[in-house]
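2.7 Reproducibility. Because tokenized structures are sensitive to small changes in the input, we list the exact sequence used for Pseudouridine synthase, including any N-terminal residues retained from the expression construct. No trimming or masking was applied before prediction.
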Amino acid sequence: MKKIIVKDLVNPVRIENYLHKRFPDFSRALIFKLLRLKKIKVNKVRCKIATTIQNDDVIQIYHDLIFSSKQNKNGKKAMPFLQTKGQLNVVYEDQNIVVIDKPVNLICQPGNDESVQTLQNLFLKYLYSKNELHWNDTFTPSICHRLDQNTAGLIIAAKNALALQEMYELLRNRMLTKLYECLIYGLIEPKAKTLKAYLTKRSDLNLVSISNKKTLDSKEIITKYQVIQHFVKAKMSLLLVELTTGRTHQIRAHFNFLGHPLVGETKYSQAQFHQANAQFKFQALHAKTIIFPHLDREQFKQLHYLSNMKFESRMIPWFQKLPFLK
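Resulting structure tokens (single pass, no recycling of outputs):
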């Protein structure tokens, strides 16, 4: 967490303008994203876009945008990510991005508790070990999107501000194709279908609800699935899923709504599956594939060379190793 005490303002200003001026290497898209995700507080209150700030306001940023303000004995900024344990599983790397295979049971970014053991910190430690990150850098490289702690698979991280900005544009406009593997209860039919429904988010409870009817607060979701294999004896189905819309908990909540919850999923599954789920530590969900679209050279000056590239996770999901599925 980075804490800033506002000083030297002549007049009150909007927080996004203040942060962009103070940290010019951070794009407005990144600042807006942090505000939408409630990662910025003013005077201990989560703030929104267009919040006005003034002198003596205290801003708190819960994100690894900036190194810790603490200093070591040499007068250099402390780098808490060096305490992170483990190795980064790199699928692809170039001068702008790193495609990472995230394991299960690892959170992507520090929360309010400033956890050290995160994928973001592991990424920073990796770059530091290659001499691509220094204590006095003004920009901190960052992962571009997230997976749940108990979901494994592909994550893209950006090494520089321009790459991060273009990645945010790709994600915001849903230009990437993301494919997931999951194991669900039941022998779902038909074997391929495009599903539509409406999702309502309950941010206060970190939950979503699904309905076939649109409401004022709901957003449309589109989930495509294809059956890879039916396991008749186990009464389970292995699916390949594409999210046309990438809403919070979409796969977990949508298949539960259909009566086919993910194996090991406890947040949304009905009581009748709780006993069966007790034997599993994690939900059976894996981010398997990311495909880039054709990228216009003028629009994506930094990342255009990634046009039509496809990345596959090298991990075998834990749920494909279950003995009763053989």
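The longest strand covers residues 219-231.
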